[in-house]
Amino acid sequence: MTAAFDLSRFHALLETRTFGRNLIFEPSVGSTMDVARDSARRGAPAGTLVVADEQTAGRGRLGRSWVTPPGSNLASTLVLRPRASLLREVAMMAPLAICHAVQDMAGIRPAIKWPNDVIIGEKKVAGVLIESDLDGPEAPWVLVGAGINVNFDPREYEEIREIATSLRVETGHEGDREALLASYVHDFERLYRAAEEGESPFENWRERLATVGRHVRAQWGGGAAEGVAEDVTEDGALVVRTADGEAIIVEAGDVTLRA
């Protein structure tokens, strides 16, 4: 059974200074990223949060679709205006904040599959999509889209049943969407303020990575590499050691975990 997102309850649970205080809510929208982008271009303040109860054209990384049925999952995008030096760290903060929120709300300790998918076991429970415009005519902005599978059953969708999970599947009961979103936004703000003061999220992000030490296949626009994910660099790139001993630095791309 699904229930509409309770805006009043979310506001009552929100403990942030700025993140989520300017809230744009849509019962149904193509993509929260599109709404957030338009808002950023019109001057929306940092911390603006776009939330939708349903996405009909949600996007994941590398152009994949993201399933958000009505009243069941969390689809949100934050508008940030960080200095350029924080951009890499924002990509670490988002999955970390999701991990902390899921752990607090559901009692499950998720991991991160490089670079920013949140997984439980081997299955994806949340994803992050980041878009930025730091050099355009408007004030610089960064959009952080987050999709969290809360109360739907991925096993009902053939295209994702083998690779995705949800909090309801993992715990056996309905998840509290309002509390989960409030927790995620609060922890994101905490990490963001700390980074502004010079405290990097890198070590905590690295410690959560399920990818390091695993045999992986990495793919990016210009090619692919297979080997052991040996480590990550301080700016978040993945170091893949191939069978012939070469260290490949993967700045951005997609990784498949091998058995």
Q: How many DSSP E strands? A: 12
Radius of gyration: 18 Å
Oligomeric status: single chain
The rough form would be described as globular
Number of helices: 6
Q: Low-confidence parts lasting 5 or more residues at pLDDT below 50?
A: none
Average pLDDT confidence is 91
Strand content: 25-35%
Percent of residues in helical segments?
25-40%
- Please outline the major beta sheet: 7 strands, mixed
Strand line-up across the major sheet: 1-2-3-7-6-5-4
Overview in brief:
This protein is α+β, with helices and mostly antiparallel strands and 259 residues long. Helices cover 27% and strands 27% of the residues. It starts with 6 loop residues before the first helix and ends with a strand.
Give a topology summary.
Elements: H1 7-13, E1 23-26, H2 32-41, E2 49-52, E3 74-80, H3 87-106, E4 111-113, E5 117-120, E6 123-133, E7 141-148, H4 167-171, H5 177-196, H6 202-208, E8 215-220, E9 223-232, E10 238-242, E11 247-250, E12 254-257
Helix pairs in contact: 1-5, 3-5, 3-6
Question: Can you give a write-up of this model?
Answer:
- This protein is an alpha+beta fold.
- It has helices at 7-13, 32-41, 87-106, 167-171, 177-196, 202-208; strands spanning 23-26, 49-52, 74-80, 111-113, 117-120, 123-133, 141-148, 215-220, 223-232, 238-242, 247-250, 254-257.
- It is built from six helices and twelve strands.
- Helix 1 packs across helix 5, helix 3 packs antiparallel against helix 5 (177-196) and helix 3 (87-106) crosses helix 6.
- It is globular and about 55 Å long.
- The termini are far apart.
- The model has no long low-confidence stretch (mean pLDDT 91).
